[in-house]
Amino acid sequence: MQQLGYGMWDADNHLYESRDAFTRHLPDHRKRDLFWVTDERGHEHIIVNGKLWDYIPNPTFDPISLAGSLTDMFSGEKSKAQVHMDGFKVVEPLSLRPEYQNRDKRIERLDQQGIEACILFPTAVSGLEEWTRDDVKLTFDLLWAFNRWLEEEWGFAYRGRMHATPVISLADPDEAVRMLDWVLERGARAIDLRSAPVPTAKGYRSPGDPIFDAFWARAAESGILVCVHAGESGYYRYSGDYTGRYEFKPFRTTAFEHIYHHGRPIMDFFAAMVCHGAITRHPSLRLVSVENGSDWVAWLVNLFKLYYQRYPGSFPEDPVTAFERCVWISPFWEEDLTSLTEYVPVERLLAGSDYPHAEGLSEPTDFIKGLTAFSEGDARAIMRDNLKSILAG
Questions:
Q1: Helix 173-185 × helix 136-153 angle, to 10°
Q2: Locate the Amidohydrolase-related domain: which residues (predicted)?
């Protein structure tokens, strides 16, 4: 663990859902729409909407991936095959890590890691909305059940240190506002929203469409962080025209699919929010990109500059100004963060560890290793002050 001399504010921590995360508050009339089954090998699975929900191959999370076990792969030092060939331990019993599913144990772990506060994202639920996209009422029934469990088990601002993110869909604009009000009443300072076109009952819509203005107005007024965390975007429906694979296949993604999907859902989301005017109509929105990396930022900003110069009348305002005003980025530590500051001011960068996922950092404060080219003051801003300024209220 890096000794910083101050407590880190981590923009990307994770919990693992317990077995009753979706069922504890599931309405009786939905008991056949989400339930657990055990196959002939004794492995447990979740059935959602009449189909095997394989977004997480092992939804019990037992055994669980060792935190940071793929760090060498993501830093470019080794391939995934080399990591496994080296005999590195990649899984462990969940019983060894009670802090992954217990908030008081997690507070103890934060203390050990030198983390003062964090945004805490769930894991499995990030794939839910895409799976239920054809049934808006089912989507909300399941998200209501999940968010009630999340509030009970973790709280939305536990001890002022762990800000667990309820997950909200825009698919029903009125219900989205009702859910947002509900989480705000319970102290939420951050929510999780996916980067994708919105599957409403009347067809797909841009998240920047005015039909969602009541939601964006409430989010802007409250100052809540709208975190757009990596998850199942549904982009396999587009790459499928090349591959014939129209559904997400966990851990079986091809090289083409990796390239096709890289950075596109998040870039498209922010392009829509800017070009379709949501950011202009709600200029105090706080939008945070989490676990999407940052190499897409230069591409998007340069496109904003190019097309604003060519067609200024097609934009509600200067798109770069809009983007810089409302968007914060939590990049990957191994990226070229110095070059990123050519497109995003230092005060808009947030350190996020992705702990305890395999592709994240085994020790969150190790993020500082990616900031060696920054001044001590700028590094502290990224590691602590920037997130604290917008999350602490």
A1: 10
A2: 134-386
* pLDDT, position 263: 96
Query: CB of 384 within 8 A of CB of 6?
Result: yes
CATH number of domain containing 199: 3.20.20.140
Q: Which two tokens stand for residue 144?
A: 């209501």
Q: Which two tokens stand for residue 279?
A: 């950011």
User: How would residue 360 be classed by pLDDT, with cut points 50, 70 and 90?
Assistant: very high
What distances in angstroms separate CA 62 from CA 35, 94, 290, one per listed residue?
A: 18, 5, 25
Helices (H), 198-294: 213-222, 236-243, 255-261, 264-275, 278-281
220 lies in which domain range?
A: 8-18+98-391
Asked whether residue 46 is assigned to any structural domain, the reply reads no
pTM above threshold 0.90: yes
> Cα-Cα-Cα-Cα dihedral of 377, 379, 381, 384, to 10°?
-130
Q: Rounded to whole angstroms, how far apart are CA atoms 160 and 388?
A: 11
Residue 14, strand partner residues: 121
The span from the CA of 11 to the CA of 118, in Å, is 6
The tally of domains found in the chain comes to 1
Q: What is the DSSP letter of 66?
A: P
**Helix, strand, coil % over all residues of the chain, rounded to 5:** 45, 15, 40
pLDDT in tens, 240-288: 999 999 888 766 789 999 999 999 999 999 999 999 999 999 999 999 9
Total Cβ atoms within 10 A of residue 389 = 12
Residue 190 in any domain: the answer is yes
Q: What is the pLDDT of residues 30-80, one digit of tens each?
A: 999 999 999 999 999 999 999 999 999 899 999 999 999 888 666 666 666
Q: How far apart are CA 22 and CA 17, in angstroms?
A: 9
Confirm whether 265 is domain-assigned.
yes
